[in-house]
Every structure is written in structure tokens, then in C-alpha cells.
Amino acid sequence: MALKQHFILLCFFTSCFKSLTADTTNSSFTLKTFGQRSTFDSLLSLYGGAKVVNGGQSLQLTTGRVIYKNPIKFYSGTPKKLVSFSTYFEFSMTSGFHGDGLAFVVFSGRDDLFDGNGSFGVSNRGGVKFLSVEFDTLMDDKYKDINGNHVGIDLSSFVSLKVVNLSSVDLGLNSGTRLQVWIDYEAGSRRMEVRVNKFGENRPVDPLLFGEIDISKIWPENDGFFVGLSSFNGNDSSQRCNVYSWSFKTRQQPDWMHSDPLDPVGFKGKGKEIKVHKENDCVLWIVSALILGIGFGALGSFVGMLMWTVFARRRPIAPEENAVKPVVKV
């Protein structure tokens, strides 16, 4: 009976483990190319002059944008908690005049964000809320741009909260070089990090720039949010912007994660990248430990019952020297 109960529990936790490892959310996608039209159409929408080129090897966003179709929930659980997200994409831009560059944009579905006339094709009208990371190739004095080769974190305005000169790390946006970008937002620390490197190079340990942004104060409601890549270059622009791959994923914030912003100075110079444990990893460790514990418990019970059957229930045999001698009748 005990073995049967252990076996039932083992099957139950195994099924839970499988359900936790399955990707059942609609907030994650990976497109290494854009050649599979059915997959592409089910995930992404093209607007403006955006189009698939080079036989599906890239998207051209010279004057257009690509938006992930499914609304993303930035809050989950009970009570509602902000989730973290990460995105990765590869792109290149050719040199040209009157080109804004490229921007990764997060926006609410209720906002009329894109009007085709603002920087990167994004409206800058008052009251429109958005979060973006801009890869700017146009120095615009009204936005206090530092040069025509910078990366900035923007919050409902193209006057960047944080900005960095890409020339300082020997990278050029409009050089035609294929670049790769990692953007990570950690809900626990309210911290956004941006990393950039040449295609084929490793992900940098230290972020190129970072900023503390509390999304819960920008969008306190649990509305559907959208993410996209947008570019806008004037009709007389000769700049070309191509995107070669794009992926995006969300992950829940662990209950035990520190809620205050991390101090980046305390980690500087360690030589190794600080890795934040994800909630899924924690859950998997817990479930794995339970499965192992139950498995060893069931094995121990089986061995114990076997030993009891072999030894405890075995009839004692009298030793030879104490054996009963037969009675001989005369």
C-alpha cells in the first residue's frame, strides 16, 4: 500500500514538472529569419514601408515598423506583480542623410502611438506614453542629442533619460556593420539594461547603459501592451535599416527577489556577469527536489519492505548443536 501511494505521488509531481517546463504563454517568440511566411504572419504585423527582403533573410524598416501581434501582460500572479522581460535582435543600417535610425518600443494598445511624422515614426504628442530604446543616427538639437551615433533610453519623450556615445566603444550605427542588441528589464530592481556588440561577438558582461524605470508607475493597469521595432526616415532619406532576427520573452518575478534597485557600483569590476535567478528556475529546482525526495523515499520503503520480508518473517532454524535428538524406544 505504501509503495502504491509513493508511486501515485511520484506521477503527480512528474506531471507538474512537465507542465511547468512547457511554454504555454503567448509572451515569448523567436524568429531567426523571416522566411517562413505562415509563422511570420501569425506573430508579426508590418506597417508603413516595412517589408520582407532578401528571400526572408531580413526585414527592411526604412520607413515602417514591425509589431508583435499578441498583447503582452506585464503583470501576473495574485496579487498582481510586474514581470521582467528580455529582447534580442540583430540589425544594420547603411549610411545616409535624414535617417533617424531604429527604436525598440513598448506601448499600450490604447495609445495612438505611431503617426509616421515623429522620430522613429513614433508620436511625440503630449500624453502618449511609451518606453523605448533608440539607436539614433541623427543629431537633433531639440532632443538634446549628443551626436549622430548614440543609444538612449526614452520614456514618453525623445529627450533620453540615459544616453551613451557608441563611438566610445568603437561601434557605428550607420556603418553597415551588423550589430546585435540585448535589452533586459528586471522587475525586481526596476532596472533596464542595454548591451550592444558586433554580430558574432559575445554578449558583453557590463551593460552599455542602464536606467531605473518603474513600469508600474507608467502603466499601473494590467492592460495589454505591445512591443515593436520602428524606424522613420524622410522621403528624401538614403538610409536603409534591416533587421535580421528578433526574439522576446517575459518571466515572472520571484517572491524572494529584492524589491529595491540594485547598486551597480557594488558589482563593477568583478569580472563576471551577475546572473539573476529566474522564478522558473527556482520552481524547477523545488519540483526537482520534491521528485528526488519522493523517489528516494519510495525506494527506501521498497528496500525496507524487502528486507522485512526476507529476514523478519523468516522462521528461525535451530543450530545443529541444539537440535532435538530423536527418542529411541526399547
Report on this model:
The chain has 330 residues and is α+β, with helices and mostly antiparallel strands. The protein has helices at 2-21, 37-43, 215-218, 279-312; strands at residues 29-31, 44-48, 51-53, 58-60, 64-68, 72-73, 75-76, 81-82, 84-93, 101-108, 130-136, 150-155, 162-165, 179-186, 191-198, 209-212, 224-231, 241-251. The protein folds into 2 domains: 1-23 and 277-315; 32-276, Jelly Rolls (Sandwich), CATH 2.60.120. The chain is built from 4 helices and 18 strands. Strands 1, 3, 4, 9, 14, 15, 16 and 18 form an 8-stranded antiparallel beta sheet that branches. Strands 2, 5, 6, 10, 11, 12, 13 and 17 form an 8-stranded antiparallel beta sheet that branches. A two-stranded antiparallel sheet has the order 7-8. Strand 3 (51-53) and strand 4 form a beta hairpin. The longest helix has 34 residues, at 279-312. Residues 6-25, 256-280 and 317-324 have low confidence and may be disordered.
Rounded average pLDDT: 74
CATH architecture title of the largest domain? Sandwich
> How many independent structural domains?
2
**N-to-C SSE series?**
HEHEEEEEEEEEEEEEEEHEEH
How would the global form be characterised? Answer: elongated
Strand segment tally: 18
Radius of gyration: 30 Å
Give the low-pLDDT segments. 6-25, 256-280, 317-324
CATH class division of the largest domain: Mainly Beta
- Oligomer state equals single chain
Hey, roughly how much beta strand do the residues contain?
A: 25-35%
- Structural class call reads alpha+beta
Fraction of helical residues: 10-25%
Task: Give the end-to-end Cα distance, rounded to a whole number of Å.
Answer: 57 Å
Question: Count of helical segments?
Answer: 4
The largest pleated sheet is described as:
8 strands, antiparallel
According to CATH, what is the topology of the largest domain?
A: Jelly Rolls
